[in-house]
Amino acid sequence: MHHDRARKYGRIAAGIVVIWGLIVGALTGIGKLIMITHNGSGNLLGDRTIPHWFAARRTPTLNHLSLIASNLGATQDILIVSVVTCVVFLAVTRRWRAVIFVAVVMFGELGAFLVVADVVKRPRPDVPHLDSNLPTSAFPSGHMAATTCLYVAVAILVIGHARGWWRYLFLIPAIVMPAVIAVARMYRGEHHPTDILASVLFAALWLTATTMLIKPNEDAFRRGGRLRLGLPRRKAADRSDETATATA
């Protein structure tokens, strides 16, 4: 039994590594193609006009608000939300599957971002930058990729583990947070629109692959593995017994 389980987990791990490599390769190819063609020999998807449009509309108030919004996708904030998510799911479900899922998603995102950014080396938009001493290049957006991966992963876990209408409220941050980060990063002159779109593409492919392989919600309704509103299990069972007795 232990041998079969080890083989199963080995295949899953191998699949994750292979797919991660394919996604990173595809994303790197897209970035290099953009660089070689000089934004498609023009204004690819607004890569020039949109950063300039934002730069022309800057105000001190918007600069401050964009800094707050941008920091929501920074490493420290992403790490805090990731750790809290893992602790909560481990405490409630008493299983490691959700923790492993979040860890694989986020470490995979970080590794992919660092590799692609280092290989592509795309310059930042040619507008004044509101952030300084940034250690990486523009393609893709690490803030965008991390935010999208994290909040969509949280939504996947909550919707899969919970019962009740409230679980779908977690779709709101999964949509709103990436949108806020995208606007903030372009406003601050740090990314082109195609940098943002590349991050969304990566997040979509990576989350799909990890969800299908790890199956983070597979054991959601086994003992100790659910979050739900409604009757406790004992009361629910007693009510079922009463209904069966009355029917008989």
Please describe what this structure looks like.
It is globular, with a radius of gyration of 22 Å. The two termini are 43 Å apart. Helix 6 runs antiparallel to helix 9. Strands 1-2 form a two-stranded parallel ribbon. The protein has one domain. The protein is 71% helix and 2% strand. By secondary structure, the protein is mainly α. The C terminus is likely disordered.
What's the short version?
With 248 residues, this protein is an all-alpha fold. Helix content is 71%, strand content 2%.
Mean of the pLDDT scores? 87
Strand content: under 5%
* Number of helices, where a helix is a run of at least 4 consecutive DSSP H or I residues: 10
Largest sheet: 2 strands, parallel
- Helix-strand pattern, N to C? HHHHHHHEHHEH
Helix content: over 70%
Radius of gyration: 22 Å
Distance between the termini: 43 Å
* Overall shape: globular
Number of discrete domains: 1
Spans of 5+ residues with little confidence (pLDDT < 50)?
228-240, 242-248
Q: In which order are the strands of the major sheet placed?
A: 1-2
What structural class do you assign from the helix and strand content?
mainly alpha
| Total beta strand runs | 2
